[in-house]
Write a sequence for this structure.
């Protein structure tokens, strides 16, 4: 029973992370333990299911439509797509729905940036700072770029919050007032990413075509702001050998040299007890950015940064 609702949990001893020996039951227990912190970020949002029936090292597939055997109490979010089809996504709004989704073999969680009552107007702007897939970008460069992005946003008067991706990069999020359409948020994100590329061409690229990205750079990925796109949720376990977790971090932790594998299924719960939810401002209505006032033109190059060189 979870919150008074019965959830059938299966194959609890099946090893999902061979490198650590963590089983499906361990994954479910983690999510049950962090649910009070995690669920508020998922409520009211469509969930894209990424299912790993064989565990983290097996094949996976995406599933958007809520399966027909879903429990009757599960809430769904029906969204019409360009093709005219209407897809009913599941919504994770309590412990029972969280465990039900994870029991399907989902390891990470991927919710929409907009809420179901208006799927065209997001309340987050974000940047996925992604190293080159060829291994030419050290994670130290990703950390440097994260601090540069934060500095540029700060000069624009825009607060930002960071989390590890749990995979290979860092996610930078900005809480925004709902108002601008998703395509307008995307347009701002693209202009900002291109500005960052002009300011720090030796470190940053905004080139979305993989074949044209210069080696050793960090992609400031603006395209994840497009309608229907998702990123791994905060506190989401990732399908990586060490069961790393997408974890909120302080900017001084980034400056101090954190690593992706510092935050894992086996230690994030202790961290939450110790430092609490560093992303709690993301849930508040107060303090959100009125992005509409930046929409009249592409973001200007911050004057205070014009003469600065990139940190080594």
């Amino acid at each position: 029973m979870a919150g008074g609702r019965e959830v059938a949990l299966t194959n609890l001893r099946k090893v999902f992370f061979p490198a650590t020996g963590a089983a499906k039951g361990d994954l479910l227990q983690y999510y049950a333990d962090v649910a009070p912190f995690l669920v508020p970020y998922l409520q009211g949002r469509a969930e894209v299911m990424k299912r790993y029936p064989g565990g983290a090292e097996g094949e996976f597939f995406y599933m958007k439509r809520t399966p027909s055997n879903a429990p009757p109490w599960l809430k769904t979010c029906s969204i019409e797509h360009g093709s005219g089809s209407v897809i009913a996504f599941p919504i994770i709004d309590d412990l029972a729905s969280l465990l039900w989704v994870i029991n399907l073999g989902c390891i990470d969680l991927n919710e929409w940036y907009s809420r179901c009552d208006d799927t065209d107007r997001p309340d987050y702007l974000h940047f996925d700072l992604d190293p080159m897939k060829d291994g030419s970008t050290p994670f130290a460069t990703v950390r440097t770029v994260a601090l540069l992005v934060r500095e540029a946003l700060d000069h624009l008067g825009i607060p930002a919050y960071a989390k590890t991706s749990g995979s290979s990069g860092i996610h930078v999020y900005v809480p925004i007032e709902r108002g601008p359409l998703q395509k307008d948020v995307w347009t701002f994100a693209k202009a900002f990413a291109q500005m960052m590329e002009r300011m720090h061409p030796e470190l940053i690229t905004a080139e979305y075509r993989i074949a044209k990205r210069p080696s050793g750079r960090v992609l400031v990925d603006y395209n994840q702001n497009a309608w229907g796109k998702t990123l791994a949720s905060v506190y989401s376990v990732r399908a990586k050998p060490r069961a790393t977790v997408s974890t909120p971090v302080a900017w001084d932790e980034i400056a101090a040299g954190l690593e992706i594998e510092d935050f894992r299924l086996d230690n994030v719960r202790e961290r939450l007890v110790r430092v609490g939810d560093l992303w709690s401002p993301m849930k508040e209505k107060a303090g959100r950015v009125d992005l509409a006032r930046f929409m009249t033109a592409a973001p200007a190059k911050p004057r205070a940064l014009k003469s600065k060189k990139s940190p080594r």
